Amino acid sequence: MISQTRMIVQNSLDALLENEVFLPELTGTERKKAFMSLSSILSTPNHVHKSFIRLPLESGEVVRIPAFRVQHNNALGPYKGGIRFHESVNEEEVINLAFLMTLKNALHNVPFGGGKGGILIDPKTLDERELHLLCVKYVRYFSDLIGPDKDIPAPDVGSGEREMDWMMTEYKKIHPGHAYLGSFTGKSVAIGGSKGRREATGKGVYFTYRYLLHDYMRQNEKTLASSHNAFAKTALEHAGRPMRTAIQGFGNVGSVTAMEAYSCPHIQNKIVAVSDRNGTLVNPDGLDIPALVAFASKNRGDLPMTQKALQAAGVSADIHDRDAILSMELDVLFLAALEDQLHDDNKEQVRARIIVEGANAPITQEADDYFSEKGVVIIPDILANAGGVIVSYLEWLQGRETQFYTEEAVYEQLIHKMQETMETILPQFFADPFSLRQNCYIHSLTRLSDVLYRQGQLY
Ligand code: NAD
């Protein structure tokens, strides 16, 4: 995964050098030098912080748990990115995710830089007291780095509102008298979080798909019909017709995306499959998504995976194995589980012609190249799943102003921001041969180069 993002960014950087949007005021060697500066600034993080958190367990054992905070780049504003609690967290992964955050914030014009944290732990193996202590100690170990104007963590895989509440409380204790509400985002609403934050990523993921397939197609149908662009052809073939839709992953992102798809008045989605870590549920006539959401919310997030449980949930479906969802006859596949789900070994079995990345990096480089050559439209992670960081920005603003917005106001601003990005990116995407991912990277890099140049950092 690490080399993959870097490789695509390197390709996008190469494309950028040839492009007149890259620092048009510079020519010749000056331009080349600025380009080399940009390339070297982005290829390495500004700081990698690592500690071993000492944690006494209830059993009497004392363990030391590796913990990271990576600060990739802060040209656009304070570092921003989640803290992942997972048993496979490693330094390279955290660096890569921090890099993606720099690009994501630049793409959506969010005034934050890129950061990421990680703790090498399966949080389910700790009891509540141990987990609380781990969160508190993470803040103590990294307390000098964190702050509303320096580096603002948020939840990621394995962490949520509860962990952010604990962490902000510890930050407040360590820095008495300082503004603290903006030090962490993704907090619960009762303690200064934002309404709508929990749903933000899934809503944004679905919006990018709806905007591309419905709003944009309707406005530009005639122009696109005369284009030779393979992606335009795929989008046009699917616009305005019923869609066989599937969602991999039914957690925070997947379940909200599924509800949005189910209730969308603009696109006729028939949700023929959803999956989670235990299996895939299939119904060619369409699944009852509200009933599945209700079941999952009462069952630690899991879908019903026996006929008895399906009956209890009031849902009619066949149960298939976990990865069956990836190779079904579909029009659109939302990936909202983990990284590296579509890869060299299964890419040829994928039938969907539109794929939306709710998860970070769910498609490997080889599979991505393969799909792009075949004209499959992929809405990439940095475009599709930015709803979380956009509403985190709104949470940070609300915390600074100590003025809180209604849920409607949050969604309105979220959609407005994502629409602005789509309006900027899509005309270019349908006019050049690059994938949507590469177009997004080129746009992010252009914005970063412009800012870094004006800050006097490209020499
Ligand atoms: P989550 O833990 O709430 O849900 C993950 C879901 O994936 C669960 O339903 C789980 O059962 C399922 N799953 C796990 N392994 C699977 C597998 N092999 N096949 C099918 N399903 C599987 O996590 P989330 O917050 O929904 O995040 C999902 C992805 O989206 C992650 O990659 C995360 O980094 C990314 N993301 C999340 C946010 C956010 O705001 N939550 C923002 C940006 C990106």
Automatic annotation (TrEMBL):
UniProt site positions, description: Important for catalysis: D156
One family name in Pfam for this protein: ELFV_dehydrog
All residue ranges annotated as the Glutamate/phenylalanine/leucine/valine/L-tryptophan dehydrogenase C-terminal domain in the record: 225-456
InterPro entries (alphabetical): Aminoacid_DH-like_N_sf, Glu/Leu/Phe/Val/Trp_DH, Glu/Leu/Phe/Val/Trp_DH_C, Glu/Leu/Phe/Val/Trp_DH_dimer, Glu/Leu/Phe/Val_DH_AS, Glu_DH, NAD(P)-bd_dom_sf, NAD_bind_Glu_DH
Entry-linked Gene3D superfamilies: Leucine Dehydrogenase, chain A, domain 1, NAD(P)-binding Rossmann-like Domain
A molecular-function term among this protein's GO annotations: glutamate dehydrogenase (NAD+) activity
Entry annotation: catalytic residues: K116
Keywords annotated in UniProt: NAD, Nucleotide-binding, Oxidoreductase
GO BP term, example: L-glutamate catabolic process
Amino-acid positions noted as binding NAD(+) in the UniProt annotation, renumbered to this chain: T201, N252
Coiled coil region boundaries: none
SUPFAM superfamilies linked to this entry: Aminoacid dehydrogenase-like, N-terminal domain, NAD(P)-binding Rossmann-fold domains
Source domain of life: Bacteria
Family classification: Belongs to the Glu/Leu/Phe/Val dehydrogenases family.
Protein name, as recorded: Glutamate dehydrogenase
Lineage: Bacteria, Bacillati, Bacillota, Bacilli, Bacillales
